[in-house]
Design goal:
The protein is mainly α and about 260 residues long. It has one domain (about 25-245). It has helices at about 5-20, 20-50, 55-65, 65-75, 75-80, 85-95, 100-120, 125-135, 140-155, 160-180, 190-210, 215-255. The chain is elongated, with a radius of gyration of 22 Å.
Length: about 260
């Protein structure tokens, strides 16, 4: 083999991983941010409960009396945390693309589409605005109008809207697929199987919750307890990969110098 060509090929292969070092690091940061979000959600459920009143008048009253707790129970943190999945899946793509490029691209695409659909769903902030207008209303006709608008928003919130439902299915399907790719290398098999089980349960929750709400709630509760462990494992591994590739790149630069 031509030694010059062999040297060029080896150099390209060694340089390619370092090109995506930043994605691994940012994916790790995103995973640890989602870890904090998951722990915060568990604390929130234990302290102020989960869910919100089933009617617009109840939600308006909750937001009037306890606005911060009301926004938390209307899942505002969900929409704030969801974009972090972009970072996580970019990091997983950078780490796993050499293991199985086609499935890694597919899983990342599914997750990106799913997150985008979920964050586009109206929820807490529209209800907050309607609550303020409801409180300021001076006639029964105005109050009835705002109540009707509130009911309409509730019908298309993050748990009921078709876009959010499809988004959840896409996100969880992409997550199960990327965890299946993990079984083939880079991440530990324990991390991969934990992700498959956890995201599989959450996928069943999204599907079953529409028809058997009680079963969906149980599946979501079980999956929710597992999330902090998975985020910690993948966050730690992504940061390790980012640090390792950065060190390798620096060593190459020093050797070249």
């Amino acid at each position: 083999m031509n030694p010059i060509r062999e040297q060029s090929t080896a150099t390209a292969e060694n340089a390619t991983p370092s090109d995506l070092t930043g994605l691994c690091r940012w994916g790790g940061y995103g995973a640890f941010a989602l870890l904090l979000y998951s722990l915060g959600t568990l604390v929130q459920v234990a302290v102020i409960g989960a869910g919100a009143p089933s009617d617009a008048a109840g939600i308006f009253g909750m937001l009037r009396d306890h606005p911060i707790a009301g926004l938390l129970r209307l899942d505002l943190p969900v929409l704030l945390a969801m974009p972090l999945y972009y970072l996580v899946f970019l990091g997983l793509f950078a780490a796993l693309r050499r293991v199985d490029l086609s499935n890694t691209v597919l899983s990342t695409s599914l997750a990106f589409a799913g997150v985008t659909l979920v964050v586009a769903t109206p929820t807490a902030l529209p209800m907050l605005g309607l609550s303020e207008m409801y409180s300021a209303a001076t006639t029964e006709a105005q109050r009835a109008q705002y109540l009707a608008a509130g009911q309409a928003v509730m019908a298309i919130d993050v748990w009921h809207h078709t876009g959010a439902l499809i988004g959840g299915i896409l996100l969880q399907s992409g997550a199960v697929l990327i965890c299946w790719v993990m079984l083939r290398g880079v991440f530990g098999k324990g991390t991969a199987w934990l992700g498959i089980i956890m995201h599989g349960l959450d996928l069943l929750h999204v599907l079953c919750g529409q028809f058997v709400p009680a079963a969906g709630a149980v599946l979501m509760a079980v999956a929710g307890v597992l999330y902090p462990f998975w985020f910690f494992l993948i966050g730690r591994r992504l940061l390790q990969l980012g640090a390792k590739k950065s060190s390798r790149s620096m060593d190459s630069l020093l050797s070249a110098g």
